[in-house]
Amino acid sequence: MQHSSNHIMKQLGILLLLSFVSVTLFAQKNITFTVSTNASKVVKGGIFEVVFSIKNGIGQDFQPPNFKGFEIIRGPSIRSKQTIINGKGTRSINYSYDLKGLEIGKLTIASATVKVNKRIYKTKPLKVDIRKPPSKSELANTKDLFIRTDLDVETAYVGQQVIATFTIFSTKKILKAELVDVPKFSNGFTQYLNISQFSSRIEIYNGKQYFTVPAARYMVIPHKSGDLTVKDLEIELKVADNNDFFSTVANKNIWSDEVTLNVIPLENQPDDFTNAVGEFEFDAILTKSELSMDESSTLTISITGTGDMKAVQIPKLKALETHFEVYEPTVNSVVQGETSRLISQKVFTYLLVPKKIGTLNYKPTFTYFDTNTNSFETLKKDEIDIRIKNGNGENGNDEISDFTNDGERDIQTIFSTTNFQNGKPSLFGSGLFWTLITLPFLALLITFGIKQRRQKEANINPILTKRSKADKIAMQHLAKAETYWKQNEKRAFYEETSKALWGYVCDKLTIPQAELSKENIRSKLAEKEVGDNNIDQFIQVLNACEMAVFAKLGTDMETIYKDAKSVISVIEETLKR
Question: Which domains are assigned to the chain?
Answer without folding.
Answer: 2-131 (2.60.40.10), 136-264 (2.60.40), 273-389 (2.60.40.740), 462-576 (1.20.120)
